[in-house]
Specification:
This protein is an alpha/beta fold. 45% of the residues lie in helices and 21% in strands.
């Protein structure tokens, strides 16, 4: 899991960072303000945010959590607080927080909460995969895309492409009998606004690694996967 720490006290922040990295988690950053929390969350899309409630800038941890959950509800937010009163619980509910940890921190509680978060994320991934039936889409040039494996093959040899390239091929295979407009593809593949050039560059890289006919395009109808005839 990728974790963002939002804690404005240096000693607790360093403690959390060292503990998590020792346990093998990837700590994206440790920031001190609500504004930085929102910015990093939108840039990096962490799996989990450990969010201090009381921050010194004009954006509290609760306000930052609400903004982040509106932007990406899949990010799990765990509040860090010295309080466990009703107001704190209400904030957690309003921001759809995954949970909260009381200060002073206890290693076992932190790790148990993250283990639950990892289990939650794994369940979501499994449920997502179940929505895609196991099938093979035969493509031009003896290529095939295996939707269950989310992988492209040439004959029986796996073709190694980046995740964004595979996501594009998967999207086109899912809509294999029609063309998709560039704007729709951009909105689906990227979580932030991107130019048409980003899509064109991605298509170029895929064609260069495979065959030019694997992705067809028409200036009026958009992009379509090249199916085997």
């Amino acid at each position: 899991m990728k974790i963002l720490i939002v804690e404005d006290e240096i000693i607790p922040a360093n403690y959390l960072k060292k503990l998590l990295e020792f346990e093998g988690y990837e700590v994206l950053e440790s920031v001190e303000t609500g504004a930085d929390a929102i910015r990093i969350a939108k840039q990096e899309n962490p799996d989990v945010i450990l969010m201090d409630v009381m921050l010194e800038d004009n954006i509290s941890g609760c306000d930052a959590a609400l903004e982040i959950s509106r932007y990406n509800p899949k990010i799990l937010i765990v509040f860090l607080t010295a309080y466990s009163d009703k107001e704190m619980i209400d904030f957690a509910v309003d921001s759809k927080a995954f949970g909260y940890l009381l200060k002073p921190y206890r290693d076992k509680e932190i790790l148990a909460t993250l283990a639950l978060a990892q289990s939650h994320i794994n369940d979501l991934l499994l449920n997502t995969k179940k929505n895609f039936p196991s099938t093979i889409v035969r493509l031009i040039g003896d290529y095939s895309f295996h939707t269950d494996k989310h992988a492209l093959f040439h004959h029986s040899k796996k073709v190694y492409l980046g995740s964004k390239a595979l996501n594009l091929i998967a999207l086109l295979c899912k809509n294999k009998h029609c063309s998709l407009q560039a704007e729709a593809i951009l909105d689906t593949l990227w979580e932030r606004p991107m130019s048409l050039q980003a899509l064109r560059s991605l298509v170029y890289r895929i064609r260069k690694a495979t065959t030019p006919e694997i992705i067809l395009n028409n200036s009026k109808t958009g992009y379509q996967i090249g199916l085997k005839i």
